[in-house]
Design brief:
The complex is a heterodimer.
Chain A lengths: L18 E4 L3 H12 L4 E4 L15 E2 L3 H4 L3 H17 L4 E2 L3 E5 L5 H14 L4 E3 L1 H7 L9 E5 L2 E3 L1 H14 L3 E3 L2 E9 L2 E9 L4 E6 L2 E4 L5 H8 L8 E8 L7 E4 L8 E5 L2 E5 L3 E2 L12 H14 L8 E9 L2 E2 L9 E2 L2 E5 H5 L4 E6 L5 H16 L19 H7 L5 H11 L11 H4 L1 E3 L4 E2 H10 L5 H8 L10 H12 L8 H14 L7 H17 L26
Parallel strand pairs in A: 1-2, 1-13, 2-9, 5-15, 13-23
Antiparallel strand pairs in A: 3-8, 4-8, 5-7, 6-7, 10-11, 11-12, 14-17, 14-18, 14-19, 15-16, 16-17, 20-21, 22-23, 24-25
Chain B lengths: L1 E7 L3 H12 L4 E5 L27 H11 L4 H5 L1 H17 L4 E2 L7 E4 L5 E4 L2 E2 L4 E2 L11 E7 L7 H10 L3 E7 L2 H6 L8 H8 L5 H9 L6 E5 L9 H9 L3 E4 L6 H16 L3 E4 L3 E6 L9 E6 L8 E7 L9 E3 L4 E3 L39 E4 L2 E8 L9 H4 L2 H19 L1
Parallel strand pairs in B: 1-2, 1-15, 2-12, 8-9, 8-10, 10-11, 15-19
Antiparallel strand pairs in B: 3-6, 4-5, 4-7, 13-14, 16-17, 18-19
Helix pairs in contact in B: 1-10, 1-12, 4-12
Classes of the chains: A alpha+beta, B alpha/beta.
The complex binds flavin-adenine dinucleotide (2 copies).
Chain lengths: 565, 427
C-alpha cells in the first residue's frame, strides 16, 4: 500500500467559506478536522505556528482523570473517556505509560482511600499497590513512599496531535493558514460575517467572510471576544515546566493529595518534565511571560519529592504556558473558574449571531470540545451529519508501528524507530533510500535530511522554530547546537529562506532557544550555553544586528497580576 | 613519579606552556581529560577585537591602555601593555618555529577571516591556507571572482549562505560540489559525514589526484574556496593544490568539529612529545596535598590521579590550564562557581544566580568573564593564601569576556608564556 501524501499549508487566499476557525491549537485543529469531515467548508487562521499557544506549552499528560476524581467528577469522567478514545485514534501521539499516585510520609494516607473510591466512581481503573511493588514498577519514585495507586495515565505529544488533526482536516478540504492573525471581527448589525486577517509573512491584511466564526483561541479568547464586542471573563494563570535531559521515569508520577505545585513528573520520548506552577498573570503579560529563577528552584525542590534523581538530573529547558481558565458563569462572585470545556453560543448569550466561542477544557478534551462546537455549527447551518472523530483514526495512527517499520527499512534501526514514532504510518513519505536523505542532521533526536525535507515540503514549516515543533530537531539534550546550523543550510538550499536571511533565521532560533535556558545557568547546561555562545557568536560571528528581533528588555516591569480567581 | 612540572589541560594554553618549559630543559607531564576548545574553534587566533564597551579594535597594540582603564582585571591589563606586546610577538615567533604557519601580525593589526556564516570577522593570526583578507572594516580584495567548491551533501558548510555574504561584500562567486567513491562509502554511516572524518578520506594519498581533478573543473576564477575538510594530516595539501592548479586555494572553517583547530591541537601534541614531554591522556587529578596547610603560603606537594591510584606525582610546579566551563576547568552549581581541581580563589562574581546570565542572548553574558584570580605572574590563591607553585593560564582565568572582546587565543598564548616565565624565574 502506498501512502497518500498530505500537504499542510494553503498558498492561495480564501475570501469566502462556511466556517472560520480562529486559533491553531489542538482545539482549533480538532475543530477543523471535525467540520471538514462533516462536509463543512472551513478555514483556520493561526497567528503563529500550529501549537504555539497552551497546546505547545503544557505537560503532555494524557490524564486518566484521576487528578480530578476527588474534586471534580465530571471532569474526571470526561478525561477517562477521551483518554481511551485518543489511545485508539491517535496512537502515534500517545505513549501508554500508566501513572502512579504516590503517598509520601508527610501526606495523609486517608486521602488515598477517598481517591481510589472517587476514581472508581468516575470509571477510572485505580489499583492500590504495596510500596514494595510500586518501587519495583517505578524504581525512580521516591523510595520513602508509603502508598501508591496505579492509574491509566499516559503521555500525549501535543505537536504531533495538532499536526495529525490538521492533516486530516486538509485531506477533507479544510484550509490552514499559519502566521495569519485575526485583527478584527466583521459585523453587520447583530451578526458576525467574517474576519479581517493580517498575513504576517507578506504583511498584507484582507477580509474573509463566513457564516460562522469560531473563537478557538484558548486564553486569547477574551481578546477575540472583545474584538467582537462580547465579554468573556477569563483568568490567565501561568504554569511553568522544567525538562530534564533524559527519561528518568517510565510511568507518570503524581502526588496523591490535593493538586498542588510541581506534583506531576511526566516522561516523554527521550526526556521527562516536572510541573507545574500556577501564577496569576495579566493579559498584557501573555506574550512576554518569562520563567523566573525562583520557579525553577521550586520545581526542582518539589519535584525531587516525587523522584529524588531529579535533583542531579541535567536540566535542559524550561517554559511556561497559560491555561485557558474561564470564569464560572454560574458563580455570582465572579471569582470561581471552571475546569470544564466552555461552549458559548453568542447568539443566545449576547444576541450576536454567527459567533461561537469554544475554550477552557484541557488538551486531552480537545476532541470533545471540537465535537460540541461542530454540533452547534451544524445546528446553525441546519445540517444533520453525525460526528465520527471518536472512531476515525488520525493520519499517522492507521497501521501498527511494526508494519510501518518495515516500509522504511533502508534506514538505521534507531533512525527508523525515531521517524516512525514521529510520523506514524506517514513515515514512508520521508525519503529514506539514498545516503544523502538518510544523513543525520540532529544526532540527539535522530533527525535525517529526508525528514527535514519532508517537513519543509509538506508540513507548513516557515522557520527553524517551526521545524523544531515538527521533527523535534533541537529538542533533545543539546537543545539544538550543531543541528540548527545544519538545518539553516538545508532551509536555504530548499529556498525556504534566502541566503542573505539565513543568519537572521539562525539568530531568531538561538534567541528562542535561550529563553528556555537562561534560568538554568549551572551544571552541564552552562557548559552547553558557553559552547553555543562560542559557536554562533564568535566562530560564526552572529550579532544582535543579524536578528530580526529587537533586543528584549533585561527586566520586565513587574506588573501586579490581576486578582487571582 | 617526579616531574619538574605537571600541566593540567591539553589546550592551547597548556601545550604552549609545556613546550616552552621543555625547551628550557624542565621535565614535564601533561594531563588532559577531553578535547580542547581548539577542536571547536575557528582555527584563527584572536588577540583583541573589541573593548568591553563594544568599541571595535583594529590595532590591539593601540588599545591596550584603554583596555586597562575599562578592564583592570583583564590578564593583559595585569601584566601591562609592554609585557603583553612582548609576549604577543614571542607567541608569533614560537608558533611559526613549531611549524604552525600563521599569517597576520600583532604590529600590523587585525585582518579578516571568513566565518561559516559568511561573515568577515577580525582576528590576529590565521593559518596560511585559511581564507583571510587584509582590511579592517572593508576587505581589501585581491580577487574579483571566487569559486566555492564543497563536498556533496556535506551539512556543516553552506556554500549558498557564504556566497550571498561574499556577494554583498563585492566578490563574484560560483558554487559547485564534488564527491569521490571513498566519500560515498563514508556516507553510508549517517553520522560520520563530518569535517574531520572527510579530511581523513580526502587526505589519503590515493585520493589526492582525484581531488585535484575535481577542483580543476572549477578553476575559471581568481581563487578557490573549500570547506575545511582536507589537509588535516597532510597540512601542506592545500598549498600543493594551489601550486598545481595555478590559483590560490583557501579553506574556510566549518561548523564543529573544526578541522583547522584540531590540526593545531594535534600539531602541538606532536611538538610536546618530540621534546620528551610525558602525555597522560584521559587522566585527571583526584586528590592533592599541601606541604604545610597551615603556613602563610601554600605549596602543592603531591597529586594523585585517576589512572595512577595511590602513586602520587610530586611536581615542583603545577600549571592549571583546564579551560572554562566548556572544558570543565570551571564548574557551576546552583549557588556557586568553582575552579574544578583546587577550588582556587576566583575573581568576584555575583552571589545571585540571576546575575550570571542575561535574558538577551546577544547581550554580553556575565558568566563568560568568571574565572580564577591571578597576579601579574599568573600565580594563584586559595582562601586568600598564595599557592607558590601553582600558575594558571588560558580560559580558566577570569576578568575578560573572550567572546565579546575577541581575545581567547591571545589570552591563552600570552598567559601561558608568562606562566612559563614565572616558573623559570623561580627555578
Ligand atoms: C502549564 C500547563 C500544563 C498543562 N498540562 C496539561 C496536560 O498535561 N494535559 C492536558 O490535557 N492539558 C494540559 N493543559 C491544558 C491544555 O494545554 C490546554 O487546555 C489546551 O492546550 C488548550 O488548547 P486550545 O487549542 O484551546 O488553546 P491554545 O493551544 O492556546 O490555542 C489558541 C491559539 O490561538 C492563537 N491565537 C490567539 N489569538 C489569535 C488571533 N488573533 N488570530 C489567530 N490566532 C490567534 C494562539 O496563537 C494559539 O495558538 C496544560 C496547560 C498549561 C498552561
Ligand atoms: C568552543 C570554543 C571555541 C573557541 N574558538 C576560538 C576561536 O576561534 N578563536 C580564538 O581566538 N579563541 C577561541 N576560543 C577561545 C579559546 O578558549 C582559546 O583560544 C584557547 O584555545 C583556550 O585554551 P585553553 O588551553 O585555555 O583551554 P581549553 O582549550 O579549553 O583546554 C583545556 C583542556 O583542559 C582539559 N581539562 C579540563 N579539566 C581538566 C582536568 N581537571 N585535568 C586535566 N585536564 C583537564 C580539557 O579537557 C581541555 O582539553 C574558543 C573557545 C571555545 C570554548
Amino acid at each position: 500500500m502506498t501512502v497518500e501524501p498530505l500537504v499542510l499549508g494553503a498558498l492561495e487566499r480564501t475570501t469566502e467559506t462556511d466556517v472560520i476557525i480562529i486559533g491553531g491549537g489542538a482545539t482549533g485543529a480538532g475543530l477543523a478536522r471535525d467540520c471538514s469531515r462533516r462536509g463543512i467548508k472551513c478555514v483556520l487562521f493561526e497567528r503563529g505556528d500550529l501549537a504555539t499557544g497552551a497546546t505547545g506549552r503544557n505537560h503532555g499528560l494524557l490524564h486518566s482523570g484521576a487528578r480530578y476524581a476527588v474534586t471534580d467528577r465530571d471532569s474526571a469522567k470526561e478525561c477517562i473517556e477521551e483518554n481511551y478514545i485518543l489511545r485508539k485514534i491517535a496512537r502515534h501521539c500517545v505513549d501508554e505509560t500508566d501513572g502512579l499516585f504516590i503517598t509520601l510520609p508527610e501526606d495523609d494516607l486517608e486521602y488515598q482511600k477517598n481517591f481510589i473510591k472517587a476514581c472508581q466512581d468516575a470509571g477510572i481503573a485505580a489499583e492500590a499497590l504495596e510500596p514494595k511493588d510500586a518501587k519495583e514498577l517505578e524504581p525512580s519514585a521516591n523510595p520513602s513512599l508509603i502508598g501508591a495507586v496505579k492509574v491509566p495515565d499516559g503521555v500525549i505529544d501535543p505537536f504531533r496531535l495538532t499536526v495529525a488533526n490538521m492533516l486530516d482536516a486538509v485531506k477533507h478540504g479544510a484550509k490552514c493558514y499559519t502566521y495569519h492573525e485575526v485583527m478584527a471581527i466583521l459585523k453587520e448589525g447583530a451578526r458576525v460575517v467574517g474576519v479581517r486577517v493580517l498575513d504576517k509573512l507578506s504583511k498584507e491584511e484582507y477580509e474573509v467572510r463566513a457564516q460562522v466564526v469560531v473563537n478557538a483561541s484558548g486564553i486569547w479568547g477574551t481578546l477575540i471576544g472583545s474584538l467582537a464586542g462580547v465579554d468573556i471573563k477569563m483568568f490567565p494563570t501561568r504554569g511553568t515546566l522544567l525538562i530534564m535531559g533524559h527519561r528518568i521515569n517510565q510511568l507518570v508520577i503524581n502526588r496523591c493529595r490535593k493538586p498542588a505545585d510541581a506534583d506531576i513528573l511526566v516522561p516523554g520520548d527521550t526526556v521527562c518534565l516536572i510541573g507545574t506552577t500556577s501564577i496569576p498573570i495579566k493579559f498584557s503579560q501573555l506574550d512576554t511571560t518569562r520563567v523566573s529563577y525562583q520557579e525553577v528552584e521550586l520545581l526542582i525542590t518539589e519535584g525531587a519529592k516525587l523522584c529524588p534523581k531529579l535533583t542531579t538530573a541535567r536540566k535542559i529547558r524550561c517554559y511556561a504556558g497559560s491555561r485557558p481558565l474561564v470564569a464560572d458563569e454560574a458563580d455570582t462572585t465572579g471569582r470561581k473558574t471552571s475546569r470544564h470545556l466552555v461552549l458559548m453560543d453568542h447568539e443566545k448569550r449576547d444576541g450576536l449571531s454567527g459567533f461561537i466561542t469554544i475554550t477552557g477544557g484541557k488538551l486531552i478534551t480537545y476532541r470533545l470540545m471540537a465535537e460540541k462546537a461542530t454540533d452547534l455549527i451544524c445546528e446553525k447551518l441546519k445540517l444533520k451529519v453525525p460526528c465520527d472523530t471518536a472512531t476515525a483514526v488520525l493520519p499517522g495512527s492507521g497501521e501498527s508501528p511494526d508494519k510501518i517499520l518495515r516500509k522504511v527499512a533502508p534506514l538505521a534501526p534507531t533512525v527508523r524507530a525515531a521517524i516512525v514514532s514521529r510520523h506514524g504510518d506517514l513515515a514512508p513519505l520521508v525519503e529514506s533510500d539514498t545516503p544523502s536523505a538518510s544523513s543525520l542532521v540532529c544526532e540527539c533526536e535522530l533527525v535525517s535530511v529526508g525528514e527535514i525535507k519532508h517537513a519543509i515540503e509538506s508540513l507548513a514549516v516557515h522557520n527553524l522554530v517551526d521545524l523544531r515543533r515538527r521533527v523535534r530537531i533541537g529538542m533533545g539534550p543539546c537543545q539544538g547546537e550543531l543541528c540548527v546550523g545544519r538545518a539553516t543550510g538545508l532551509m536555504t538550499a530548499a529556498k525556504l529562506c534566502t541566503p542573505d536571511k539565513a543568519p537572521g533565521e539562525l539568530a531568531s532560533f538561538l534567541e528562542e532557544r535561550w529563553k528556555g535556558i537562561y534560568p538554568l545557568n549551572w551544571g552541564e547546561t552552562i557548559r552547553e550555553s558557553e559552547f553555543v555562545m562560542w559557536l554562533y557568536q564568535s566562530i560564526c560571528g552572529l550579532t544582535r544586528a543579524d536578528s530580526p528581533n529587537p533586543a528584549p528588555p533585561e527586566h520586565l516591569e513587574d506588573e501586579a497580576p490581576t486578582e487571582s480567581p | 613519579m617526579r616531574f619538574d612540572v605537571v600541566v593540567m589541560g591539553g589546550g592551547l594554553a597548556g601545550y604552549t606552556c609545556a613546550i616552552t618549559l621543555l625547551d628550557s630543559g624542565l621535565s614535564c607531564a601533561l594531563m588532559s581529560i577531553g578535547q580542547s576548545a581548539l577542536h571547536f574553534s575557528s582555527g584563527s587566533m584572536d588577540f583583541l577585537n573589541a573593548l568591553p564597551n563594544g568599541e571595535r579594535v583594529y590595532k590591539p597594540e593601540a588599545a591596550l591602555e584603554k583596555l586597562k582603564e575599562l578592564a583592570p582585571e583583564h590578564p593583559y591589563s595585569l601584566m601591562g601593555a609592554e609585557k603583553t606586546k612582548a609576549m604577543a610577538l614571542e607567541a608569533e615567533r614560537l608558533l611559526n618555529n613549531w611549524g604552525i604557519l600563521v599569517s597576520g601580525s600583532f604590529t600590523e593589526g587585525n585582518h579578516l577571516r571568513l566565518s561559516p556564516m559568511g561573515k568577515l570577522l577580525p582576528t590576529w593570526l590565521s593559518q596560511k591556507d585559511v581564507f583571510w583578507v587584509k582590511g579592517d572594516e572593508k576587505p581589501l580584495w585581491e580577487w574579483k571572482k571566487v569559486s566555492i567548491v564543497t563536498v556533496k551533501d556535506f551539512l556543516d558548510f553552506s556554500p549558498e549562505i557564504i556566497s550571498a555574504q561574499l556577494n554583498d561584500l563585492g566578490l563574484q562567486t560560483k558554487i559547485s560540489s564534488f564527491t569521490l567513491p571513498d566519500l560515498e562509502i563514508l556516507r553510508e554511516n549517517p553520522s560520520e559525514f563530518r569535517s574531520v572524518n572527510i579530511a581523513r578520506v580526502l587526505d589519503k594519498k590515493e585520493n589526492r589526484p582525484l581531488v585535484l581533478a575535481e577542483l580543476k573543473k572549477a578553476t575559471d576564477c581568481d581563487a578557490l574556496i573549500l570547506p575545511a575538510c582536507l589537509g588535516l594530516n597532510h597540512p601542506s595539501f592545500i598549498s600543493e593544490l594551489s601550486k598545481e592548479l595555478g590559483i590560490p586555494v583557501r579553506i574556510v572553517p566549518t561548523l564543529a568539529p573544526s578541522m583547522v583547530g584540531a590540526r593545531i591541537n594535534n600539531h602541538l601534541h606532536r611538538e610536546f612529545l618530540a621534546r620528551g614531554g610525558v602525555s597522560m591522556p584521559k587522566d585527571v587529578a583526584t586528590a592533592y596535598t599541601f606541604k604545610d596547610p597551615d603556613a602563610e603560603t601554600l605549596t602543592i606537594e603531591k597529586i594523585f590521579t585517576a589512572n595512577h591510584g595511590d602513586i602520587p606525582i610530586r611536581p615542583r610546579h603545577v600549571i592549571l590550564a583546564t579551560g572554562s566551563f566548556f572544558s570543565k576547568g570551571l564548574y557551576a552549581d546552583m549557588g556557586k562557581i568553582k575552579e574544578a581541581v583546587f577550588e582556587l580563589d576566583l575573581l568576584d562574581y555575583p552571589d545571585q544566580r540571576e546575575e550570571w546570565t542575561k535574558y538577551d542572548f546577544f547581550a554580553p553574558q556575565p558568566y563568560a568573564g568568571f574565572g580564577v584570580k591571578v597576579d601579574e605572574n599568573m600565580r594563584t590563591f586559595k582562601k586568600g593564601k598564595l599557592v607558590t607553585n601553582l600558575k594558571a593560564a588560558g580560559l580558566v582565568l577570569g576578568g575578560f569576556n573572550p567572546v565579546l572582546q575577541g581575545c581567547g587565543a591571545g589570552v591563552a598564548l600570552v598567559t601561558a608564556l608568562v606562566a612559563a616565565q614565572s616558573v623559570l624565574a623561580e627555578e
